[in-house]
Specification:
Layout lengths: L11 H33 L16 E3 L29 H6 L4 H10 L1 E4 L6 E4 L3 E4 L4 E4 L6 H4 L5 E4 L8 H4 L5 E4 L10 E2 L4 E5 L7 H16 L7 E5 L3 H6 L4 H4 L13 E4 L2 E3 L21 H11 L15 E5 L10 H10 L3 E5 L2 H4 L2 H9 L3 E5 L15 E6 L7 H6 L1 H4 L3 E6 L6 H6 L4 H4 L1 H17 L9 H14 L11
Parallel strand pairs: 1-14, 5-7, 8-11, 9-10, 9-12, 13-14, 13-15, 15-16, 16-17
Antiparallel strand pairs: 2-3, 3-12, 4-5, 4-11, 6-7
C-alpha cells in the first residue's frame, strides 16, 4: 500500500502513530496524577483505623485501659518539617554557643573560650574551643583560646559542675555525678573518638521517674539548651537511667542526630569541637522567651515539637471531639477522690465523655497516654505530678487543678502559671475544710484543719507535706465543683451543648 505524505514529509501512518503515542502518554500522566492525588489525600486524613477509638458506652464513661491508640511505628526521627526561624541557618558554631550566655559571661567566652552562667537556678558552662572528655573520670579538658594563651600559660584552673537543671535542692544535688572541667593536660592525650559536633553533658538522675520533674528539669531545659543546634550535638548522659531514656526515646532523636554516650560503660577519650555542660532552666514548665538563647523559642514551639514527636492529631479544642472529652486523673494512694463515682456521673450529666486514668503503668507510657490526653478538651486532677500532662492538651484546652487543704507549696508556680504560656486555660477548685478527709480524722476545729499554717510553722515543709499531701483525701462538694466544670465548658465553646448548665 502506498502511504501518502503530508506537507511536512511525514506519512499519514507515522502521524497516526505519533498521535496514538501522545494520547497514551497523556492518559498515563493523568493516571499517575490521580494516584498521587489519592495518596496525598489519604495521608492528610486519618483512616477509620487511625481515629481515636473512644467506643463510649451509654454514659460516655471509659477506662484508660480500654483506649486503643493508632500506630506510631513510623514516627519521624527528627523535626525536619519545623520551620527554620530567622538567623537559624548557616550560623557558626561559635555564634550559637555564645547565644547560650549573656552579658559578661558572653564576653568572657569570646575572650577565653570558656564561661559559666549560674542564673535562673541552673548552672551551664560553655567551652567554645576543642575539648577532650575522659569518660572514665568524667573530666572535660579545655584547650585555651589562642588569643589568651599568654595569660593562661602555666595556670591550671578547675570548675566542678553537677549538670542538673535545678540546682536549688541540696538533697538532689548530692546524687548528681559531678563533672570536672579543667585546663590541665589530660593523662591520655590521644583521642579514641573524634566528633564533628559539640557535646552536651547532662544528668538523667535527680527526680526522674516523676513526670513533672522529667519535663521540668530534663526535657524542657534540654530543648532550651540544644534547639539552636538543630540536632548537631552529642548527648553525654551521666547518671544514665535506662528507664528514663527509654521513656523519652522519641524525643532525644529530635534534638540530636547521634547515639547517646553513656560514660558508665565507655571509658575512652572523646574529642569534640566544643562542649556544653549542664542545661538551662527558666521557670517551672516554661520558657522565658526573652531569656532563651535566640530570643524567639517559646513554649508553643516546644509543644509543637511534642505534637510532632508523638503525632498528636488535635491541635486546638475546636478540632476536638463533640461531645467534649474530659480526662479525670484518679489518684489511688493519696489525694483520692472519695466520691469519684458521683463526680463522674455529674460530669456526664453536663455532657462530657469521661476517661478515667488511674493506672500508673498506663499513664507512664508517654507515647500512648499523650494521645489520650490530646483527644481531650478538659483535664481534672488533684494537685500532683500527673497535672504536668497538660503539656499534651490541645491549644485552648482546660486544666482544672483541685487544690487540697493546707499544702499550697508549688500549686501556683507548678501548674497555674505555666498554663497560659502553653496556650491553655487554667481553673482551680480549692476545697473547703469539710471536703477534706482530715476533718473526719481531727474535726473541723482542730488546728490541722482550722489553722493549716500552724502545721508548717511548727514542723516545716516536711510536716506539712506529710499531713496535707500524704495523708489527705478529698470528698468534693458536687454543687460547688459543678460551677467550675460549667466554666470550663464555656472556655471550650461548648456551653450551647449543655441544657440548663447553671
Amino acid at each position: 500500500m502506498v502511504q501518502k505524505e503530508t506537507r511536512f514529509g511525514k506519512t499519514e501512518k507515522g502521524r497516526g502513530g505519533r498521535l496514538v503515542l501522545f494520547a497514551t502518554q497523556t492518559l498515563c500522566a493523568f493516571f499517575l496524577f490521580s494516584l498521587l492525588y489519592t495518596e496525598l489525600t489519604f495521608k492528610g486524613t486519618s483512616t477509620p483505623s487511625q481515629q481515636l477509638k473512644l467506643d463510649i458506652v451509654v454514659t460516655g464513661r471509659q477506662i484508660l485501659s480500654d483506649w486503643k491508640p493508632y500506630d506510631i511505628s513510623n514516627a519521624v526521627k527528627k523535626d525536619v518539617s519545623a520551620p527554620v526561624k530567622k538567623n537559624d541557618r548557616n550560623q557558626s558554631l561559635q555564634f550559637l554557643l555564645t547565644r547560650l550566655l549573656g552579658g559578661e559571661d558572653r564576653k568572657k567566652l569570646d575572650l577565653t573560650g570558656f564561661a559559666c552562667d549560674n542564673s535562673f537556678s541552673s548552672v551551664i558552662c560553655v567551652a567554645s574551643n576543642p575539648v577532650k572528655i575522659d569518660m572514665s573520670k568524667i573530666q572535660v579538658h579545655l584547650q585555651p583560646s589562642q588569643s589568651n594563651l599568654t595569660l593562661t600559660a602555666g595556670i591550671n584552673s578547675t570548675t566542678v559542675v553537677r549538670p542538673y537543671a535545678m540546682q536549688e535542692s541540696p538533697y538532689v544535688m548530692n546524687y548528681i555525678t559531678p563533672v570536672t572541667i579543667t585546663t590541665a593536660e589530660p593523662a591520655r592525650r590521644t583521642c579514641d573518638h573524634n566528633h564533628q559536633h559539640p557535646a552536651v553533658i547532662f544528668s538523667s538522675g535527680g527526680y526522674t521517674g516523676n513526670l513533672f520533674h522529667e519535663f521540668n528539669e530534663n526535657i524542657i531545659p534540654l530543648f532550651i539548651t540544644t534547639r539552636l543546634f538543630r540536632s548537631r550535638v552529642h548527648f553525654v548522659v551521666v547518671d544514665h537511667k535506662p528507664s528514663f531514656l527509654q521513656k523519652y526515646r522519641r524525643v532525644f532523636p529530635r534534638l540530636s542526630d547521634h547515639e547517646i554516650i553513656n560514660p558508665a560503660v565507655d571509658s575512652s577519650v572523646h574529642c569534640f569541637p566544643a562542649a556544653v555542660i549542664g542545661l538551662k532552666f527558666h521557670k517551672f514548665l516554661g520558657i522565658n522567651t526573652s531569656e532563651n538563647p535566640q530570643n524567639f523559642y517559646s513554649m508553643p514551639d516546644f509543644r509543637q515539637l511534642i505534637r510532632q514527636t508523638y503525632k498528636l492529631k488535635t491541635k486546638t479544642v475546636f478540632d476536638a471531639q463533640n461531645p467534649p472529652v474530659l480526662l479525670l486523673i484518679s489518684r489511688q494512694r493519696t489525694r483520692k477522690f472519695l466520691n469519684q463515682a458521683e463526680m463522674v456521673k455529674m460530669m456526664e450529666q453536663l455532657g462530657f465523655r469521661v476517661i478515667i486514668a488511674s493506672n500508673d503503668k498506663e499513664m507512664s507510657n508517654v507515647e500512648k497516654f499523650s494521645r489520650v490526653i490530646n483527644s481531650c478538651s478538659v483535664m481534672v486532677g488533684a494537685h500532683g505530678a500527673g497535672l504536668a500532662n497538660e503539656i499534651f492538651l490541645p491549644d485552648g484546652g482546660v486544666m482544672i487543678q483541685v487544690r487540697p487543704l493546707g499544702f499550697q507549696y508549688g500549686t501556683d508556680a507548678f501548674y497555674s502559671e505555666p498554663g497560659p504560656g502553653m496556650g491553655l486555660r487554667y481553673l482551680e477548685y480549692l476545697i473547703e475544710p469539710a471536703e477534706s478527709s482530715l476533718a473526719e480524722v481531727y474535726g473541723l476545729d482542730h488546728p490541722v484543719v482550722a489553722d493549716t499554717a500552724s502545721v508548717a510553722a511548727k514542723g516545716g515543709y516536711a510536716a506539712a507535706r506529710e499531713i496535707y499531701l500524704n495523708k489527705q483525701d478529698l470528698r468534693i462538694n458536687l454543687n460547688r465543683f459543678r460551677e467550675t466544670l460549667v466554666e470550663a465548658l464555656g472556655f471550650i465553646g461548648r456551653h450551647k451543648d449543655v441544657a440548663n448548665a447553671r
